[in-house]
Amino acid sequence: MPKFNFLMKYYTLLLFFIFVLVSLTKCTPMNSALTLDIPTTGIHILQQIPSGDAARASSPLYLPPRSIEAKEFNTPQLQLLADSMYATMVRTAGVGIAANQIGKQLQICMIEAKADNPRYKVLGPVEKQIFINPRITKVSDQRRNFWHGCLSAAGEKRGNVATYEWIEYECQDPKGNIQKARLDGFAAVIFQHELKHLMSGTYLDVANEYLAKPELDHQIEIGRVAFFGLANDTLPLLISGYQVGETLDEYHARQKSASASK
After folding, report:
1. What is the CATH number of domain 35-260?
2. In this structure, what are the phi and psi dihedrals at residue 176, rounded to the nearest 5 degrees?
3. Burial degree of 83 (CB within 10 A; 0-12, 13-18, 19+)
4. What is the pTM of this model?
5. Residue numbers of the chain with a pLDDT score lower than 70
6. Residues whose CB is less than 8 angstroms from the CB of residue 230 and which lie 6 or more positions away in sequence, other chains included
7. What phi, psi does 260 have (nearest 5°)?
C-alpha cells in the first residue's frame, strides 16, 4: 500500500507538471517571430484597387506595413517569408516584389533581374538583393523615365513615371545586419518601384501617361517614345511624397497626420 500511494503521488505530480508546461506553451509562444504568420501554400499576388473603391481600406497594398523587429531577424520565419517572396517573384517572371504584394504588411522587398528575364531583357541583369526596413539616404539630381508594369497590375497598360537615376540606401539583411550601398540604372528603378509598394499603391496611382505593351514596343522601336531617357520635372515622380532620409514608419506617420488635419 505505501508503494501504491507513492506511485499515485508521483503520477499526480507528473501530470501536474505536464499541465503547467502545456499551459505555458499555449500562453507564451516559443518563438515570438511566429507573429510573422507566413503562409507556405496558396501564395498569390494581390492586385491594385481603383481609387475611390472602399476595398482599398482593407487591402495590404494600401495599408502601412510595419517594420521588422529585432527579435524577428535571423529566424526561420523571416527566412521563409524571403524564400516565399522570391519563389513567387521567379514564378511570375517579376524583377522585384514587396511583402504587401503577397498580403503581408511588412517592410521587406527584394529585386533581381536575370539576363534571360522575358519581360526586361534589354536593361541587363540585376543581382538578387533583399531590403528589410529600407530607407533612401541620398538621391541623384537627375531622373530617368521608365514605363512601368507590375505584378500587381496584371493586364493593365504600362505607365510612364520618373525615378531617380541613382539612389543610396540603408536597410537590414535577414540576419539584422545594417547594409548601406548605392544602386544605379535599372537596379535603382526596381528599388524605387518596390519602395512605392511599401509607401502604398502602385505606379497606376502616380502615372498620367499610359500605353499598352504592344503599342509601347512599337513607339519605342520607331523612336517616338523614350524608354529610359532623362526625365523633366513635369513627369510624375514614382515615389513622390517620400522625404529622403526618413524611415517608412516616419513616412506613414507623416501621411496619417496630414490626412487627419484635412
Report:
1. 3.90.45.10
2. 95, 0
3. middle
4. 0.84
5. 1-42, 118-122
6. 142, 143, 144, 145
7. -70, -30
DSSP state, residue 203? G
Q: 109: Cβ–Cβ under 8 A, 6 or more apart, which residues?
A: 96, 97, 98, 99, 130, 131, 134, 191, 194, 195, 197, 198
Distance CA 87, CA 78 (A): 14
What's the half-sphere exposure (Cβ side, CA atoms, 13 Å) at 150? 32
Q: One-letter amino acid identity for 158?
A: R
What DSSP designation does 45 have?
P
| Active site (catalytic) residues | 194
User: Which parts of 26-151 are beta strand (E)?
Assistant: 96-98, 108-113, 126-139, 143-148
- The DSSP element (H or E) to which 262 belongs, if any, is none
Sheet holding 178-184, edge to edge: 96-98, 108-113, 126-139, 166-172, 178-184
What pLDDT is recorded for position 23?
37
Q: What is the mean pLDDT of the chain?
A: 86
Cite the DSSP H helix spans in 135-212: 185-199
Place of cell 526561420: 76
